[in-house]
Structure prediction request, 206 residues.
Amino acid sequence: MSLPFQQAQFLKSAGSLQDFPEDTGAEVAFCGRSNAGKSSTINAICRQKNLARTSKTPGRTQLINFFKLDGDTRLIDLPGYGYAKAPAHIQHQWQSLMESYLVHRHALCGLILLMDIRHPLTEIDWTMIHWSKHYKLALHILLTKADKVSRNAMAKSLTRVTSEMEQHGFHAGTQIFSATQRIGIAQVQEKISAWVSQALVESCPG
Prediction:
């Protein structure tokens, strides 16, 4: 099953559990630090320049943004975490909103965790990794902004992340990604399509 990523459309933004679309079908959520490039990644995967709003100001995404692919399939842009300049009460609101989504959303079938390839596996990244394991969510890691480093640095970062994940008992796919150089797009598209296909089959009665 290959999803029609290029047909993706903005569905809605939600600031509370009550605002979320109907909890049916299958969703894949993108999460990561506020400067990891989630919006740019979604745009690259869907081959649309302005599908997800991008900003040079970290922490700009304060709501959960839902994008419809086809039928009952959606991509989700979660608020970026770890933006130190945001007021404490705003950070708390973001955290509560993300927790509401991650804990209660039955349609969620996988998390794409973005990390800047130059600064992977921060403390808050590990929190998300542990969270995904606790809630038995499929996890796939994108080492973003690969165009900012040399090929040697890419390989070292990929090896380091893969090794540390295995040492801590986590089994997740990890790949190099660059939205600007279009590196790794097909690979993550295939991962999302596989998750969605499996989730929809498992949700069918009988």
Summary: The chain has one domain: 5-201. The chain has a mean pLDDT of 90.
